[in-house]
C-alpha cells in the first residue's frame, strides 16, 4: 500500500468500509465510512487508536511494514467505541509489552469490552508523553462522543488526533487529505455525522472547541473522513456553528401520512412558505426518509413543521420514532409548527403538542388538525401557519 505521511515519521493507517450498510447498525452510510488510525515511529513507537475489527489482518500487516520488526510501545486510546478499538486485543496480542494510554474512564471500558487490564498509563489534562523528537499531550473531551473520549496533540508537528470530533461519513476514495479531494462531496456527510453521532452533546462540543482553540494547530486528524492539513477554518467554523445550534432561515417539513391527507397539508404549507420567500424548504415523508437525514437538516434550518396522521389514537409510528429521537437529542433553538389528520378519534396532533411541550421550541401558530380530506377552513389555517412561520423566520 502507499505510505501516507502526515509528517516525517507520522503515518496515516486507515481503512475504507464500503460494505457496511448501517453505521452502529442504525445510521445509513451510502458513501461508506473510513476508520482512521495513525502511527508515530520514533525512539518509541505509538499507535493512535485502532480500526474496526474487520480490518485487523491488513492493519497489523501495515503496522509491521512501517515499524520494520520493532515493537509498538504505546497504544493511545482516544475513544473506546469499537469502530476504533476493534483491533485492540489483536494489537495487544501482537505486541504483548505494549502500554495502553488513556484515562480512568478509558480503562474501565477497556476492562468491560476486552478484559484487558495490564500495562496501562493513565493520563490527565496536559500530561506529556515523550516519544523522542515527538511529544504527545492529552486533553479529555468527554461526550464527544463517549465519556472517556480525549484528544491527543503531537507538539512537534502540531497535529491533533481528534477522535470522532471533525469526522465524517464517506470513504476516502484516493484522497486522504482535505486538499486532495473535492470537499464539497463531504459537506453533507460531515454534518450528518456531526448531527447524528455527536449532535446530542453540543454543549460538550463547545467546551472541547474552547480547549482545541488554545492549540497552535497545523493538522486535524480525526478517526473518520478527511484529514485536515489546510483551511482548518472550514471545519472549525462549521463545528462552532453546528454546536451552537446556529441555523439558516429555512424550513424542514416532515409528515406521516397513510392516505395522503396529512401529506397534502404539508404541500400547502411548503408552497406558502415559498410564496412568502423562503428558499430553503425540505419536505420529507417520515416513512421513507431515514431520520438521520431529517435530523441533519434540522441542524441546518431554523423552522421545523411536523404533521402526523392519527394512528390507533396515537402518533403515526414513523413520526413517533422521529420525535422521540429529536427529544433525546435535545436540539435547541428552533421554530415549530404542528399539523395533522384527526382520523376517527385524533391522536396525531394531540401527541405532537406533547412533543412541543417537551422540546420547548417556539410554537408559531395553533396546531392545525383536519378531519379527513383538506377543506377550505383548514386550508386557510395551513396558509396562516406558514405565514406565521415566515414572519418569525425572515425578520
Ligand atoms: Fe467513530 Fe464514537 O466512534
Offer a quick outline of the entry.
By secondary structure, the chain is of the alpha/beta class.
Describe the structure.
This protein has 12 helices and 21 strands. With 395 residues, the chain is α/β, with parallel strands linked by helices. It folds into 2 domains: 239 residues, 4-Layer Sandwich (Metallo-beta-lactamase, Chain A); 140 residues, Rossmann fold. It has a 7-stranded mixed sheet with strand order 1-2-5-6-7-8-9. Strands 15, 16, 17, 18, 19, 20 and 21 form a 7-stranded mixed sheet that branches. Strand 12 and strand 13 form a beta hairpin. Helix 8 packs across helix 12 and helix 10 packs parallel to helix 11. 47% of the residues are buried. The site of MU-OXO-diiron has 8 residues, from helix 2.
N/C terminus separation: 55 Å
Rounded to an integer in angstroms, the radius of gyration calculated over CA atoms is: 24 Å
Heterogens:
MU-OXO-diiron
Q: Based on DSSP secondary structure assignment, what is the total number of beta strands?
A: 21
Output mean pLDDT. Answer: 97
Kindly state the percentage of residues in helix: 25-40%
Structural class comes to: alpha/beta
Annotated CATH topology of the largest domain:
Metallo-beta-lactamase, Chain A
SSE layout and pairing:
Blueprint lengths: L4 E3 L2 E8 L4 E2 L3 E2 L4 E9 L3 E4 L7 H12 L6 E3 L5 H4 L2 H7 L4 E4 L1 H11 L5 E3 L5 E3 L4 E6 L9 E5 L4 E5 L23 H12 L3 H11 L6 E4 L9 H12 L4 E9 L4 H15 L4 E6 L5 H10 E11 L2 E2 L1 H13 L5 E7 L6 H12 L2 E2 L4 E3 L5 H18 L2
Parallel strand pairs: 6-7, 7-8, 8-9, 13-14, 15-16, 15-17, 17-19, 19-20, 19-21
Antiparallel strand pairs: 1-2, 2-5, 3-4, 5-6, 10-11, 11-12, 12-13, 17-18
Helix pairs in contact: 5-9, 6-7, 8-12, 10-11
The chain binds MU-OXO-diiron.
